Amino acid sequence: MAKLRNFVPSTLFYYITLTAYTIISIYPFLWMVSSALKPNREVLRNKSLIPNEIMFNVFVDTWNQLDFFKYFVNSAVISIAVVIGIIIVYSMAGYGFAKTSFWGRDLFFTAFLGLLLVPGVTVLIPLMQLLRALGLIGPDATQLSTYTGLVIPMINGAGPFAIFFFRNFYNSLPGELRDAARVDGCSEWGIYLRIYLPLSAPVIATVGILNFIGSWNGFVWPSLVINNSDWFTLPLKLRDLDLQAVIQWNVRMAGSLITIVPVIVLFIVLQRYYIRGLTAGATKG
Amino acid sequence: MFNRKRLFVLMLSLLLLSLSGAALAQDPIELTMWTWKIFHVPGLEAIAANYEAETGIKVNIEAYNPDEVYRTKITTSAQSGDLPDILSYWSGGQWELAATDMLVELTDVVDESWQSEFLPGTYELQSVMTQSTYDFCQQDADCTYSNIEVGQVFSVPLLAGQAFFLFGNKQIISDAGLDPNAVPATAEEWMDAMLAIKEATGSPGLVTGVQNPAVLHFWLFNPLMITSCGVETYDAIWNGEDSFTNPCAMKVLDWFYAMSTNDLWMPGILQTNIDPADVAFSQELAAYDLGGTYTLGFLIAQGMDPENIVSFPVPPLAGSAIPTLEIAPAPLIDVMVTKHSEYPEEALAFLRYLTSPEQMALFAKINGDLPAVKVPSDPEIVGSVMPGLLNAVSDYTPFQDSTSQQLQEPSSVLQLGLQQFITGETTPEELATAIDEANKAAWEQLGS
Amino acid sequence: MTQTQIKSDSVYGSAPLGVKPRKSVAQILKNNSGFLFILPALLIFLIFGLYTVIYSFALSFFRWNGFGVFTILPPACEAPACAFVGLRNFQEFLYSNPTQSQFFWRSFQNNIIIAVFVTIGTIMIALPLAMALNRAVRGQSLYRTLMLLPMVTAGIAVYYAWSFIYQPIGVLNSILETIGLGALQAKQGWLGQPNTALLALMIVMIWGAVPSAMILYLAGLQTIERELYEAAIIDGASAWHLLWRITWPLLRPITVIIVITSLNRALQEYEMVYLMTNGSPAGHTEVVGLQIFNYGFGDQRQLGMASAMSWMLFALAFIVALINMRFFRSKEE
Prior knowledge:
The structure holds 3 protein chains of 3 kinds.
Chain A: H1 2-7, H2 11-36, H3 40-45, H4 57-66, H5 68-99, H6 105-115, H7 124-133, H8 143-172, H9 176-183, H10 188-199, H11 201-217, H12 220-225, H13 234-240, H14 249-269, H15 271-282
Chain B: H1 2-24, E1 30-35, H2 41-55, E2 58-63, H3 67-80, E3 86-90, H4 94-99, H5 112-115, H6 123-127, H7 131-139, E4 156-161, E5 165-169, H8 170-175, H9 187-201, E6 206-207, H10 213-238, H11 247-261, H12 274-282, E7 288-291, H13 295-301, E8 309-313, E9 330-337, H14 344-354, H15 357-367, H16 379-382, H17 386-392, H18 408-423, H19 428-447
Parallel strand pairs in B: 1-2, 1-3, 6-7
Antiparallel strand pairs in B: 3-9, 4-9, 5-7, 5-8
Chain C: H1 3-12, H2 25-31, H3 35-59, E1 62-64, E2 70-72, E3 75-77, E4 82-84, H4 88-96, H5 98-135, H6 140-147, H7 149-152, H8 155-165, H9 171-178, H10 197-222, H11 226-234, H12 239-250, H13 252-268, H14 271-276, H15 288-297, H16 303-332
């Protein structure tokens, strides 16, 4: 081990590097917090992180203007629906691709992965036409139908990565589990439901969190589908705050923080599962 | 029998009463209006409140931001049948909407008295299909509104404005020993002033939203070029019949180049967009700001003292065909009624109300934005910023006589080139040749 | 019985090998019952995915401004808003229109630069960080949480924060000044100078991509057995040798994933460029994604052109992915 020490930097060096990079990672976030606490003129002039005078009322005012709970509930309902949909549909699909065999299996899998590469910009118009033809949006739309029309394409969009993760993970689980269950007389569906699905908790957590974040922060797609301002999500409502000609940076930052804090909280709490899931779903690629 | 008859009459009258009661108890009519300028919403809502007080009809104002989202929203809502009763859109852009049968035709609805309420150069140039616009469209194989006839009307102008205004910081100017109230007569004089200011105080000369490539082209290049060359030559050059190497155009390019070689732009100018530029000016980071009729209100809202601001139109170059630039407001936003509306009559009525001088004066007072409708210049009615603006604009501007079209390709080359003067990547001669080439190619392709 | 024997019995029944009896419908359904698992995903894909993809592909052969009628079921295109133009869209931005093709190829060049630089940069930062994190046992979860923050924070706010940092009198320049590297400052702003603008954007991209890459590598590192290292050290291997001969090859599957994601993003990115520079200065940060966005949503209203460009990007991304798979698959064998 002595020979190794000559070449490998000491542990202190590691800590220094980590701390330095951590600061870089969180600096923009710190700037957001500090801007939210400053009066608007100071945001652009005072280049330091510490505000000259801390103003909490910006947060309070923005919270009230945002009517936080109502739009929080909207965002939550949509994001949870998206996540549940993704998990149900794509854990099944991942299992199907990994553990069963049927005609065209690999062909379909490649097709799904290929979807990853299709650019998203130009599919917006046909999607809207489709939702209209299905009666989900339009003059007679209800909140339920609008949200349905909003959520399903989002689920579809998450397909490629989700299938990839689930399939990978199921592939990495030993096949004996399945054979043993088979011998016990379990149907394919039973095997999936009772054995594999529970085991895939880490991947569920990962896919769930990633897509929750994505759908929570999403702006363009909901802004096109949702016409009634009562049904807005938090980011949409945040845009509404820009009601004045003068850009209120501190309000923008406060609003942004309020919008992303739930996600951060969720993330910190579920962090362990997320990391376990990432590694489980990816390392055996 | 007698009782039955009475009973019958009683029941009939009760029935009639309940029916009329039901009619009275019908849902009140609600209209929706869309815009993309979020900061117009307070003004529009004030007008809507007045309207509701007078007629009982509620108008909901909704704003979608930014521009791209608004455009996409209109496109997708047109597909899904969701357009609002009243739509606001960029002036001159409504032809595409009209061509695909989205708008209610207003040709016979806008009568003489209504027309006379608009500022000259607004309604008749952009809301009515003119012969020159029609001709250009027929000539262009790709034109998306070739089915619109001359004289058809689908919208009315709501708001107007114009760029070409310069704002100077009087404090900085006088600190350099110059007369803060003096207005430069030529662009060269102006540049000399900026040089003197930089020499004396170190302050950068000019700031504007250079990061947006359209700004230098439309706000500074066009006015300098039309005054330098005169309308005829200006048109000929853009139509591909003359060249950008014509001395009158080269002078303009040289002037722009000199701005960079003399280092008069604010540092970081290429990173600065329109609003941040105005903010920078309000923080005394440059001596002059290039903006428009909408800038003054913004600067004051940022905390600048209006007494400290001197404003004047872009001064033409020395020896220009047109010695002073007159600025007339051009229509910026038009409003229209869509065919998806359930209450087109009521929507039209609101349109009339909205564009009436009293309501627009109220709007001007709240927002500081210039209406396309003639409003009085009494500060009591229109607020403190308006009178100054109204005095600064006139009825005529050379652009009203111009019939040329600036095609997309040569415009892109010009816009890129003007930015490249700042990065030092091109010269006036190179740029002039490049624009000529692109212009020729574009006009050729148009015919095919 | 062995696996193969069971299988051949169920498929072929008791017929001798070499003679294939006709499978009954019930039999086919049973053999392919796994299909049911992918059915929901497939249905959603067919309706919301395939239809829109075909629509978008068809659109690239038309000129359309988004208003009026353009549908593929049934096929309809109403003039004057819509017209069939065949391959013209592709031709224009690839070679026939001098201005547009010039802009396209310059943007594409930027995409390539971003793809290469960001991918390599992400790996070169994420891997050492993961290795450092692996060693630093104390406070590991705190470091991890904080370093993963960029991944979670919303797009727009972060872009504004970085734009702020890049100002001429901004944080980055101040820091460079303080540590004595004042000469490296960008006096015109990092996003305002042609020689630094693209670099500045790429730094933000790397900053955003490192967290997940780092976690993946960390997980991978933790699955490598210590014995491998120890054996190598006994044999006299240097630290470099350990990295190159053991760590790197074993982490290859992770590297593949990171490379594919990174390349994909580099080709499709537009939101960040739009919000931070919009192609400035003088087109030095123009990328194809931004052009597509401007054609489709900007004031040019050329949806056919936007589609055509998107599909060109898709074709390129596809080729790149294929090359990637081939390259790494062969190495694995």
